[in-house]
Amino acid sequence: xxxxxxxxxxxxxxxxxxxxxxxxxxxxxxxxxxxxxxxxxxxxxxxxxxxxxxxxxxxxxxxxxxxxxxxxxxxxxxxxxxxxxxxxxxxxxxxxxxxxxxxxxxxxxxxxxxxxxxxxxxxxxxxxxxxxxxxxxxxxxxxxxxxxxxxxxxxxxxxxxxxxxxxxxxxxxxxxxxxxxxxxxxxxxxxxxxxxxxxxxxxxxxxxxxxxxxxxxxxxxxxxxxxxxxxxxxxxxxxxxx
Length: 242
What we know:
This protein is an alpha/beta fold.
């Protein structure tokens, strides 16, 4: 599986190539799926470009993308979108239009409650385990571990020289991860080295403008679709399917 991460916390300052509005996200999602993406991760935005968990923001984004693509769509529940854990939980419980899955960062306060609420509503949970945090240890102790959709192993080391080593250490910390599938990805300078490692290990991965704005050669990416197409090459999907 290759997931496209359409925008993340990036905004207008990162360039017009980053999709922000529901229509722009839907267009970008359709192009990325046509390029080979099989799953979508998106950060719904307010009109001023801020990440939001509000149902009034989430619904039109999901509806616009679903009108264009047939693949699963996931959203963030990151604390930066709603810092107060109780308010974040109420936001999730107030969603009228549900995503197929949502990422829950296990090192954040209130993660267990958010994950339980999502599972109760039939939404798959991507357990976000970040390198450099206590997320792996907290997840190992969680009774919800066997019930998550997959583990989202997030390598926060942005150095191209050390990200692969950090990724391997994170996977070791995760251990069996309750037997759940693992999606491994990096960000910025670590995005491409970690994606290539995921290919060698046969793990699911993701790529998109949330994780990097540039292609492996350092050239600025023109779209999420271009990143997905290059990601398939870097991962080695052609060789695997031949």
